[in-house]
Amino acid sequence: MNKLTKIHYISFANLFASIMVITVLLYYTILMVVFGGIFGAAMGSAEMAGAAASGGLIGGLISIVVALPIGWIGGIIYAFIINLALKVMGGLAFEMQ
Asked: Which residues pair with 2 in a beta bridge?
């Protein structure tokens, strides 16, 4: 039986930021483009639908740039909390084959 007693801050922050960027890319950007097109079309013209969808795409891409540093800082904070919990618990036991 192995014990996990510490998580390295930088490695976990890199993983957390990567997951956050992928999540923002898959969900937020796609939703911004789809809903931008729907609401633009509801305004009455195809030009508005295209403009709103492209605005949604730009907003989604900007959110990816913002999500990276926020996810990295959040990953460091989360790794700190995990390390505190592991220290209190005495480690996390797991089995590997």
From this structure: 94
